[in-house]
Design a protein that fits this description.
The complex is a heterodimer of chains A (381) and B (258). Helices cover 40% and strands 13% of the residues of chain A. Chain A is built from 15 helices and ten strands. Chain B is 37% helix and 12% strand. In chain B, the strands form two sheets. Chain B has a six-stranded parallel sheet with strand order 1-2-3-4-5-6. In chain B, strands 7-8 form a two-stranded antiparallel sheet. Chain B is globular, with a radius of gyration of 19 Å. The model of chain B has no long low-confidence stretch (mean pLDDT 88).
């Protein structure tokens, strides 16, 4: 084991009621200090035993700022006590609406060394992210963004694409750009997990149209100013010959990295999205050692699924760019539910001559995990 | 008044010849960046006492200016960086062409936003970009094109020397303001932070500026003093400029490939 990626969910509660949110919110209490200390102590012991020198800690939720300044003061205290041998790299996924006052000061201290610490989810163009009271949260997030910039952090914006996003692609791009954002990460709103209905319901084809329009907007700006995921990773792969470096579509994580998402009650999953969807549980940290977790099959379920792609995907010309997509979006055949849209987008790139058969062949040759599966398939009786 | 600014770099407004020598006597010559000549009465000969690096801006407030004034200063351009500053008012395009034909770079000033003739500005932009033999920079076209080409967030505030974090306009009574055109504006706090505050306010509105593809290069310049001003025509100009830069980039790419 060479690296530990911790995702800690201090709470599952959120101050927003996003129309597309699929997170299950069981009424479990916020993470107690005793469990937080247990995490730091156990990871400290494990990393010392395995000579691991760095830990990535991503604070996730719910809305992780809801637990307040004292929670993160405790985290700093435990880090000092249990991780003197470790270099910790903290980050947070947040709506940023609570980035004020004492909490702002504490987080500035905790995250100060990482100028890319915050990933911010918002929707500047549609009222899809109301507070629990009903008022739209976009301006509160925007104020948080300006405060974050003032504190020297870069703005890494996340956007959940819904049906109405298709008509406001240019606005979205320009708002992010004008705000001085460094990166924009887009994901499709997934109605498979129940929440995104009616006017906001996004089809697979819609997702493809959105990707196409975003590409055109980005191209009109000479691909400057903003890094856009996943378009940027696809573009790099096409130009440089891959492989795609992206969690949803890229090469599988090495098993030398221990990925661990921890809910407020200690429940464990391989990633927060999988956990939010209630899929592939690993167990509970209170009754498993880190060694047990590292040896558990479900800990590497993302890698396992990517290393066992369905036959239909292996035969697809775009497999090296898609990798069958994000695991929680897989249908019963193992294909991503967004296959049609992604295919539409890649076909569009082909029709423009941006993506050629030669480039596809080149990216495929460089995607070792796919080559291996194709070889195994040919060798099978 | 110049004594007050001895430790600053200064661009001096000069209505008369006589003030040139007075100006020089009060300044370290290396701190005099330029002079703005407010009237054609100023004799070009009087400028011989200025150092060669001192820029000379001809402030053409009267569009009916005699061509001979431009010709006279055109002859000085070997010794000085002489620029014709032309307000965008009826007839400005002719003056710009005259200035360019005299070998003078031009700075356009759009002070009266509601009234300016967008079509004439677009015609001039075409002249700037495509006219054979036209080799003088016309601002703000020139700097903005370079900003688009290099993808730099250089703003109109900077190009027009109206960013108060870099420049201050000192009124005759000694009051420091953002610029002459904004002399009546309440900056709402310290002058140096004005543009940053303005941009934050415009973004927080989530209105026209936040969704505009040119905001990073405009910086809200055209929303002051009237924040209700609709930038439809300004966007046409910026769009045309950007398209021309894209053309250049594609030509260069083709040239590089061939």
């Amino acid at each position: 084991m060479e690296n530990v990626r911790l995702i800690i969910k201090p709470t599952l509660q959120c101050n927003c009621r996003c129309v597309y949110c699929f997170a299950q919110r069981p009424e479990i209490p916020d993470m107690p200090y005793e469990l937080l200390e247990h995490i730091f102590r156990e990871i400290g012991r494990f990393t010392r035993a395995h000579n691991i020198g760095t830990v990535d800690v991503a604070w996730h939720g719910g809305e992780p700022m809801l637990v307040g300044a004292d929670f993160y003061r405790k985290a700093m205290e435990f880090q000092t006590r249990y991780w003197p041998h470790l270099s910790a790299n903290h980050s947070m996924t947040t709506n940023l609406t609570l980035y004020t006052g004492e909490l702002r000061k504490v987080l500035l201290h905790l995250f100060g060394d990482n100028d890319e610490a915050f990933s911010i989810s918002w929707d500047p163009s549609h009222p899809t992210r109301p507070f629990a009271g009903g008022e739209d949260s976009a301006k509160a997030t925007l104020k948080g963004c300006l405060a974050l910039k003032e504190d020297g952090f870069s703005l890494r914006l996340g956007y959940v694409v819904h049906k109405k996003s298709i008509e406001t692609v240019v606005d979205l791009y320009n708002i992010c750009r004008n705000l001085g954002s460094d990166s924009l990460w887009v994901v499709p709103a997934d109605e498979h997990f129940a929440a995104c209905h009616g006017d906001y319901s996004l089809t697979s084809q819609d997702w493809g149209v959105f990707l196409k329009r975003l590409w055109e907007t980005w191209e009109d700006d000479d691909f400057g100013f903003l890094e856009i995921s996943p378009l940027g990773e696809w573009r790099d792969a096409i130009i440089e010959g891959g492989p795609v470096t992206n969690c949803e579509y890229g090469t599988p994580w090495e098993r030398t990295t221990l990925p661990l998402s921890i809910a407020p009650n200690g429940d464990l999953g391989a990633c927060p999205t999988i956990q939010d969807a209630g899929l592939f549980p690993i167990g509970n940290l209170r009754n498993m050692s880190i060694e047990d977790i590292a040896a558990h099959r479900m800990t590497y379920i993302i890698t396992e699924k990517r290393e066992t792609l369905p036959a239909e995907c292996l035969e697809c010309q775009f497999v090296s760019l898609c990798g069958s997509g994000c695991l929680p979006t897989h249908d019963e055949t193992g294909k991503t539910a967004w296959c049609k849209g992604i295919t539409f987008f890649f076909e569009y790139l082909k029709s423009r001559g941006i993506l050629t058969d030669d480039r596809l062949q080149y990216t495929l040759e460089n995607a070792e995990y796919i080559q291996r599966q194709i070889r195994n398939r040919s060798a099978a009786p | 008044m110049l004594n007050t600014y001895r430790d600053k770099y200064v661009i001096a407004r000069l209505p008369h010849n006589s003030e040139i020598s007075e100006c020089l006597s009060q300044m370290d010559s290396h701190r005099l960046m330029g002079v703005e000549l407010l009237s054609p009465d100023v004799d070009a000969e009087a400028l011989t006492s200025l150092g060669p690096n001192v820029a000379v801006d001809l402030m053409l407030r009267d569009i009916g200016t005699d061509l001979t004034w431009l010709e006279q200063y055109g002859q000085l351009r070997q010794a000085h960086n002489v620029v014709a500053v032309v307000p965008v008012v009826p007839g400005f395009d002719r003056v710009v062409r005259d200035a360019v034909s005299c070998g003078l770079p031009v700075v356009l000033r759009i002070d009266a936003l509601e009234d300016f003739d967008c079509d004439k500005v677009l015609e001039l932009l075409d002249f700037y970009a495509h006219s054979p033999g036209q080799n003088q920079p016309i601002e703000f076209f020139h700097s903005m094109s370079r900003a688009f080409f290099a993808q730099q967030p250089i703003t109109m505030w900077h190009i027009m020397r109206e960013d108060p974090s870099e420049y201050r306009y000192v009124m005759d009574d000694g009051t420091e303001v953002i610029s002459q055109r904004l002399s009546q504006l309440d900056a709402g706090g310290d002058l140096a932070g004005f543009v940053e505050r303005l941009q934050d306010d415009l973004l927080l509105e989530l209105g026209e500026c936040s969704k505009c593809g040119f905001f990073r290069n405009c910086g809200g310049y055209f929303k002051v003093p009237d924040c209700q001003f609709q930038c439809t025509n300004i966007k046409k100009i910026f769009r045309t400029l950007k398209d021309k830069v894209t053309e250049i980039r594609r030509d260069l790419a083709k040239f590089g490939r061939s």
